[in-house]
Design brief:
two-stranded antiparallel sheet, Creatine Kinase, Chain A, domain 2, 344 residues, single chain, alpha+beta, eight-stranded antiparallel beta sheet
Length: 344
């Protein structure tokens, strides 16, 4: 699985601040208990029913089906690092599955919290495009599967907060300037009042390593898909504006020397370190991407830096070497990979 996901390689709209967009639809099959309470035979039945739909997804590309139990631990961790499955989906893999397209921009988790979790990932800010594609894939499944649906409640889901449209849309932001001027909590702290939530790098319960934050809707019931997307777009515009203001402030006459010194020091450590831990590398690469995006440091590819933010993670490094590695060796290899990439 050494291939890089297409959304990580490409630059999308507002790509200097928005790393990616994800739209996820939760669906369940009528008459079968949710995965948390279903028996083994019922979970197997879900796998078989969903697997039979794969040939009908051909209009959207070439897809492969994998049972999670047949995927080794390292590859499962890679799927998480590529944001193709959730961390919970690789735990207790029996009777779980995943369907992936060739570009690793579409994934369908089977028997996670719900029978189906349809995910579409896009580079940059492409909420409408991701939602439109997810809807078309959902329609293909709905032609073959009998969804659990109530005319008043909408789609029925394991967690009541997902019922209704069962649509979760999220935007992955890179907000180093707001973090630097200590305004990130002020900007993001009020979103819960408006039915939105902020999470870290891997979603719920994760930390915002590398100044990466995910903004997503919390409310799915009582709102149409169009309203949810429109609402998220509006808040995204506000966050983009705040981050751009912070970047302008950092390059103002009174702060420019301090800012350039901070960013070049990050570049210097990355260019010369012989061993570096994952969290420190993420923070310094975040600083370097900011420097390139603000044109403080030139002739570095921002998309390559975006890829590095993924490639330096534990499972990716072990994939490079083809074996499990102790922490110290991973730190050494991480530093070497960063140095070599920055020299190119």
């Amino acid at each position: 699985m050494k291939k890089i996901s297409s959304w990580m390689k490409e630059s999308g709209p507002e790509g200097d601040i928005v790393l990616g967009t994800r739209v996820r639809l939760a669906r369940n099959i009528r008459g079968i208990p949710f995965p948390g309470t279903a028996g083994r035979q019922q979970l197997k039945a879900v796998l078989e029913q969903v697997k039979d739909v794969v040939p009908f997804l051909s209009p959207f590309g070439e897809f492969s089906y994998r049972q999670m139990a047949s995927v080794d631990l390292l590859e499962r961790e890679l799927l998480v690092e590529k944001h193709l499955v959730s961390p919970s989906h690789i735990q207790n893999p029996r009777h779980k599955g995943v369907i992936l397209d060739e570009a690793f921009s579409i994934s369908i988790m089977i028997n996670e919290e719900d029978h189906l979790r349809i995910q579409v990932l896009k580079a940059g800010l492409q909420l409408e495009a991701a939602w439109e594609l997810a809807t078309r894939i959902d329609d293909a499944f709905e032609k073959k599967l009998d969804y659990a649906f109530h005319r008043r409640t909408g789609y029925l889901t394991s967690c009541p907060t997902n019922a209704g449209t069962a649509l979760r849309a999220s935007v992955m932001f890179h907000l180093p300037a707001l973090q630097r001027v200590k305004k990130v909590q002020e900007v993001l702290g009020t979103v819960s009042k408006f039915g939105l939530t902020v999470r870290g790098l891997y979603g719920e319960g994760s930390d915002a390593w590398g100044n990466i934050f995910q903004l997503s809707n919390q409310v799915t019931l009582g709102h149409s898909e169009e309203e949810i997307i429109e609402y998220l777009v509006r808040f995204t515009d506000q966050i983009l504006h705040s981050e751009r203001q912070a970047r302008e402030y950092l390059l103002g006459d009174s702060r420019r020397l301090e800012t350039e010194d901070w960013l070049y020091r990050s570049y210097g450590i990355l260019s010369n370190a012989r061993s570096i831990a994952s969290r420190e590398a993420m923070e310094l690469l975040s600083n370097l991407k900011l420097a390139v995006d603000m044109k403080v440091i030139k002739q570095k590819d921002p998309e390559l830096l975006k890829q590095l933010l993924v490639q330096i993670r534990s499972a990716h490094l072990q994939e490079i070497m083809g074996q499990a590695l102790p922490v110290q060796e991973r730190d050494r290899l991480r530093a070497s990979l960063i140095r070599d990439t920055l020299k190119k």
